[in-house]
Amino acid sequence: MNRLGRRPLARRLTGAVLCAAFGLLYAVGPVAAQSIVFGTPSATSKFGVAIVFTQPYSGATVKSASVLVQQPGDVGPAVLPLTKIGSATLVYSMDMSGGGLYPNTPIKAHIEVVLSDGSVEEGPEIDITYADDRYTWHTKVGKVVRLHYIDATDSFASQMLAWGEAGIQKAASFFGVDESKPIDYFVYPSEAVFQKGLSQAGTIGGVTLSSFRTCFAAVAPGDSTYGRSVIPHELTHVAFADASDNPYHNPPRWFNEGLAVYLSDGFDAGDRQLVTQAVKSGTIRSLLAYTDYFPLDASRIYLAYAESVSAMDFMIRKYGQPAVAKIVRAYAKGVTDDEAFTAGIGVNVETFTSAWLVANGVTPTTYGPQPAPTGPVPPGWNGSSPGTTVTPGPSETGIAVAPSPSPTLVPRNPAAATGDDQDAYLVAAMIAVLGILLLALAGVLSMRSGGPGAV
Q: Is this prediction's pTM over 0.85?
């Protein structure tokens, strides 16, 4: 066969490959993506019973669905799968019979669905506030504080509001922050009602949730003694949180509580007596014991508060209020406890704690790794092997510290591929087939253009 005879064959082969490629594309055709239309969602709640999320929809077949729920301060939403899929409505009931949420918690949620073709769609946002609807609440509004109460005379409610307004402004001035955004303050009329609503221990009479600017307290109607103490105390925590807010860690608990007591009550005679008695009996504790938590039993919690305000009184008398406020604001920069204290008063936490103990007539006790006692050794032992005393380095504490709990994040189902993913797989398959055909064509042309029988 001459060269002229090979050209028609090459053209025919090329045409066959192109026709096969176009035929493959035509056979696959466009992938039709499913679409879903979300209606207006809603949510209802009954305190201590449930929060119910409802999402109407139409236009597509839903394979599975979840409600994503987020509270203030959460790093990510909780993913709660629906067990039943309605034909036109998706409903999820979050059981609240076991507690788990404080009253007045604002919640943001939305429904996420996986359609029958594997695509994922998200519904519109749902907002709801989980309210304690067991009672009829009355409200008095000040410049910053919104006082909610159940059972109090109008004059006593006005007095509580005045204590709150004065307390938040005093704290804001001390910390150097602006407090103009509303703060909700819920006052329960008895400890029993308070504890049932907030699931608190019997030694707790007030709670602050600074992440959504809400305070709670148990104040009996007409109890001015406790009211004028607890109302500004909890509000001080809000201003403290605003001044020290950072994404890394909280300041020491004793530091926070000590300032709240100091600004609301000062270092009064009752707390002085508790500290004096603890020094005499040898039961006073280092402030380092109150870094994260306070004991909740009555025999120790009041001493914890007394020690904390005693330390703040000592700090303010020794270094001055501006220095203490500087410590608080230093935390907002994300520094460590020692860095914050050094920035404000020039010494670290342990040094300050020791100075406070000495000021109260207590000799600080050193805890931690100690050199092992030297025992008998064989004759000629040089002590350079086992038995040598090792001094821990500066980064070693000798204390086993459990890692901080990390939030549990639920990843999406990797099998829930979207319609775009399916299109990509089909295109990849077509390209692969086309490549094989082109390689075959190249092989045929190569054989006819070269080799022993080529002309």
A: no
